[in-house]
């Protein structure tokens, strides 16, 4: 966030996030359908590449661009949502280290729960395999968000300490300059 009001930032970023995700999905669908159906047996002259492979690679590249753009907007929006949730829960910034420790405990619990679910879901056959994969990715996404939150907390703590140390050093320098 660059000092803009939260509402303005959300109004600007949420539609852009949605559009980027839609465009990424469209390019991913194109990369799956077009190379296999329309141009699967055509060779690109001079490159000796299958045209389907080339089109698929290019569309994956464009999908990646839109996903990266969506990720940057999602990170800003997650900062906003995290700040709103923290304020609503009444968590003070002074207790950030406690919140980081709580996030670490949540990560451990998520890993344990996901690990406990794998054998149970594995007994369900093909559906169980798909559910295991979904569980893995969902756990990974939640863990990544918690790690991101821990990183934000640690960054703020280090930044505040560095600023206070810089202020002390500046006062000491000004104090010694005034004595001369």
Helix percentage range: over 70%
Shape: extended
CA-based gyration radius: 24 Å
Largest sheet: 2 strands, antiparallel
Number of strands: 2
Q: Please report the distance between the alpha carbons of the first and last residues.
A: 43 Å
Mean pLDDT over all positions: 82
Cross-sheet strand order for the largest sheet:
1-2
Helix/strand order, N-terminal first: HEEHHH
Enumerate the spans where pLDDT stays under 50 for 5 or more consecutive residues: none
Strand content: under 5%
Secondary-structure class: mainly alpha
Q: Helix segment count?
A: 4
Which descriptors apply to this entry?
single chain, 180 residues, 4 helices, 2 strands, 84% helix
Characterization of the model:
This protein is mainly α and 180 residues long. It has a two-stranded antiparallel sheet. Helix 1 runs antiparallel to helix 2. The protein is extended, with a radius of gyration of 24 Å. The model has no long low-confidence stretch (mean pLDDT 82).
Topology:
Blueprint lengths: L5 H32 L5 E2 L4 E2 H39 L6 H27 L3 H54 L1
Antiparallel strand pairs: 1-2
Short description:
It contains four helices and two strands.
